[in-house]
Design a protein that fits this description.
The complex is a heterodimer of chains A (402) and B (147). Chain A folds into two domains: 29-43 and 224-293 and 334-398, Cytochrome Bc1 Complex, Chain D, domain 2 (Orthogonal Bundle); 58-217, Cytochrome c-like domain (Cytochrome Bc1 Complex, Chain D, domain 2). With 402 residues, chain A is mainly alpha-helical. Helix content of chain A is 41%, strand content 1%. In chain A, strands 1-2 form a two-stranded antiparallel sheet. Chain B contains one helix and nine strands. Chain B has one helix at 2-28; strands at residues 41-43, 49-55, 66-74, 84-91, 96-97, 103-109, 112-118, 125-134, 137-146. The model of chain B has no long low-confidence stretch (mean pLDDT 88). Classes of the chains: A mainly alpha (402), B alpha+beta (147). At the A-B interface, helix 1, strand 1 and helix 12 of A face helix 1 and strand 5 of B.
C-alpha cells in the first residue's frame, strides 16, 4: 500500500511539474501590453487644431451644432449633416450607401473620435475636419447646395451669431444667389464671372461654416465599453467584476484579434485604427460607379482649395505634414480604404466602404478567406479560421459595443 | 521485486524533476528569436559612408509623424555635406511600403540631415532604405526598425 501511495504521490509531483510548464496564465506579458494599448484610457487628450482657430471656441461649436442639424443647409431644404450622421445611431445611418438628395456610392462613417483623424472620408480625400464638412454641402448627391447660396443663407439666418465669432460678414450684395466652381454649368459660369476678391469673400464664409461644424464635431468622442473595463482590470491585476468579466469565448476572440488573426496589425491603438489606407480585397458593388479608393483621392485632396496648404488655413504650415508627406502613387494605394475604428461597430451593420457585408460574421469570413482584390493587391492573407474561432472574434467585437 | 520498485520510483522522481527544470527554463528564457540587424549606425552597402539613423526626439512613437536624423560621415570620419538623399521602405513581412513619403527636408550641419514625415502605423519589422549621392559617390543603406 505504501508503495502505491509513494508512486501516486510521485505521479502527482510529475503532474504538478508539467502544469508548471504548460499551465499558462490567461494572457502573456506581450499580450497584456497589446491589450493595454487598445484600452480607451490610453487615448490622449484631443490636440489643438491650429488650422482652425475656432476649433475650441464654444460659440463656434454651438453655431456648428445648429448648422449640423439644419436641413436649410441644402439645396432643397430637406437634407442636413444629421440626415446621414444620425445622433441616436452613432452619427451614421445603417444604410449600405448614404442617401442625401441622391444615392451616394459610400457608407456613412460614424463620428466618434472623428477629430482625431488625419484623413477624412473612406479614401482620405480631405485633410481636415473643417474641409471635410464642406464637401457634402456641395456634393450633388448629398446636400447639393453651393457656396454662394450658403453664404447668403448664413447672412440671412445666422448673421449675428456668425459675426460674433468670425467678425464682420463681407458685402454679399453683388454675389450671385447660386455660384460654385464645382456645381452645374450655370453655377460654374456665375462663379467664374465673380471677381477674385468676391470669390475669396464667399470662400471665407464657406470655410468658416466648416470650421464651426468641425468645432461641434470635436465634442463627439468614443465611450467606455466592456472591453475597456476588462482591459483596465487586466492591467491593474484586479479581478473583473460583473460584465467586465469576459467569457471564455470572448477571451479566445481577443487572443485571436491580437494574435493569429492579425486584426490588431491595422486596428491598433485605443481607437482600433492605424488611420491609414489598406487594400483588403473588399469586392466592388455591382451598379455603383468605379471606385479605386485612396489612389484617386490623392489628387482630390491636393487640388482642394480648403486643404492645409491653402489660404483658408489658420496657423502656420507646420500643421500640414500629413499632406506634405502623403504617399501619392504606387500599387499599395489602389483600392485602399481607411481602417475604420471598431468601437461600436457591432451595433452598426452593414460594413465596409460601400456596405458590402451585412453582418460581422461575413466580415470575419472575408478576412479568414482573404480573396484577391479586383484591382491592386490585397494586403491580407488567408487565415483559415475555424467556425469556432470566427464566432469568438465576433463575440469579442461585441464587447466594443457594450 | 523491491529493488525494481525503487528503480521505477527513482526514474519517476528524476523524470518529474527534469520536467520541472525544463519548464522553469522555458518560462524564464527571454523570447529571443534571431531578428534583423537593429543597429542605428552602420557602413553603407559599398562602404563609402558611415550612416547613423536616430529619431530626432529620441523616442519612436507608433502612429505619429516624426522626424529622424540621418548622419553621414565618410569612412575616414569626415561629415558628408551636400548629399542628395532618397528615402523608401516598408514592411518586408507585409508586402507593403511606407504609409508616408518621408523626405530629407533640412541640412543641419556636421553631416546631419533631417528626414521628416516618418510614420510607423503598426508594430512589427519596418525597413527604411536610403539612397545617398555625394562627392564621394553613391551608395545605399538599409535600417531595420522593430516596434
Amino acid at each position: 500500500m505504501r508503495r502505491i501511495a509513494s508512486i501516486a504521490s510521485l505521479l502527482a509531483l510529475a503532474a504538478f511539474a508539467l502544469l508548471g510548464g504548460c499551465g499558462k496564465p490567461q494572457f502573456g506579458d506581450a499580450e497584456k501590453k497589446t491589450i493595454a494599448s487598445l484600452a480607451l484610457n490610453t487615448l490622449p487628450s484631443l490636440k489643438v487644431d491650429t488650422t482652425n482657430q475656432y476649433a475650441d471656441v464654444p460659440a463656434a461649436a454651438a453655431l456648428g451644432s445648429t448648422l449640423f442639424f439644419d436641413a436649410g443647409m441644402s439645396r432643397d431644404g430637406t437634407v442636413s449633416c444629421s440626415t446621414c450622421h444620425k445622433i441616436d445611431r452613432q452619427f451614421q445611418d445603417d444604410l449600405p450607401q448614404a442617401v442625401g438628395v441622391g444615392h451616394t456610392n459610400r457608407r456613412t462613417m460614424p463620428l466618434a473620435g472623428v477629430a482625431r483623424n488625419p484623413w477624412f472620408f473612406w479614401d482620405g480625400r480631405r485633410d481636415s475636419l473643417w474641409a471635410q464638412a464642406l464637401t457634402p454641402l456641395e456634393n450633388p448627391l448629398e446636400q447639393a447646395g453651393n457656396r454662394a447660396a450658403f453664404a447668403h443663407y448664413i447672412k440671412k439666418r445666422f448673421g449675428e451669431r456668425y459675426e460674433r465669432i468670425f467678425g464682420p460678414l463681407p458685402d454679399l450684395s453683388s454675389a450671385p444667389a447660386n455660384a460654385t466652381p464645382l456645381g452645374s454649368d450655370a453655377e460654374k459660369a456665375a462663379w467664374n464671372a465673380m471677381p477674385t476678391g468676391r470669390q475669396d469673400d464667399v470662400n471665407r464664409v464657406f470655410a468658416n461654416i466648416g470650421k464651426a461644424i468641425a468645432a461641434f464635431e470635436r465634442s463627439i468622442e468614443p465611450q467606455q465599453t466592456r472591453f475597456d473595463r476588462f482591459a483596465i482590470d487586466l492591467a491593474t491585476g484586479a479581478k473583473p467584476e460583473g460584465n467586465a468579466a469576459f467569457s471564455p469565448e470572448e477571451v479566445l476572440g481577443l487572443k485571436l484579434f491580437i494574435g493569429k488573426a492579425n486584426c490588431v496589425t491595422c486596428h491598433n491603438g485605443p481607437r482600433f485604427t492605424d488611420n491609414s489606407f489598406h487594400n483588403t480585397g473588399v469586392p466592388p458593388v455591382d451598379g455603383l460607379p468605379p471606385d479605386r479608393g485612396r489612389v484617386d483621392a490623392v489628387a482630390q485632396v491636393g487640388a482642394d482649395p480648403f486643404n492645409c496648404l491653402g489660404k483658408f488655413r489658420d496657423g502656420d504650415e507646420s500643421a500640414c505634414r500629413e499632406l506634405r508627406f502623403m504617399v501619392k502613387d504606387g500599387p499599395q494605394i489602389t483600392r485602399a480604404y481607411k481602417t475604420p475604428s471598431l468601437r461600436g461597430a457591432a451595433d452598426r451593420p452593414p460594413y465596409m466602404h460601400a456596405g458590402q457585408f451585412s453582418t460581422l460574421d461575413e466580415v470575419v469570413a472575408h478576412y479568414s478567406k482573404a480573396p484577391p482584390s479586383v484591382e491592386g493587391v490585397s494586403e491580407v492573407h488567408p487565415l483559415h479560421l475555424s467556425e469556432r474561432e470566427r464566432a469568438a472574434l465576433v463575440a469579442f467585437l461585441k464587447t466594443l459595443s457594450e | 521485486m523491491a529493488s525494481t520498485w525503487r528503480y521505477i520510483l527513482a526514474g519517476l522522481g528524476l523524470a518529474a524533476l527534469l520536467v520541472g527544470i525544463v519548464a522553469a527554463i522555458y518560462l524564464t528564457l527571454p523570447q529571443s528569436a534571431p531578428g534583423p540587424d537593429l543597429s542605428r549606425s552602420k557602413k553603407t552597402a559599398n562602404g563609402l559612408f558611415v550612416a547613423s539613423f536616430e529619431p530626432e526626439r529620441g523616442v519612436v512613437r507608433q502612429g505619429e509623424l516624426q522626424s529622424w536624423l540621418l548622419t553621414l560621415k565618410t569612412a575616414a570620419g569626415a561629415p558628408v555635406e551636400g548629399a542628395a538623399i532618397t528615402v523608401s521602405g516598408g514592411m518586408p513581412r507585409h508586402d507593403h511600403g511606407l504609409p508616408t513619403s518621408p523626405q530629407a527636408t533640412d541640412y543641419l550641419g556636421q553631416g546631419r540631415y533631417r528626414i521628416d514625415g516618418v510614420k510607423f502605423t503598426m508594430s512589427g519589422w519596418w525597413q527604411l532604405h536610403f539612397g545617398i549621392s555625394a562627392a564621394a559617390g553613391s551608395d545605399t543603406v538599409v535600417f531595420n526598425i522593430v516596434l
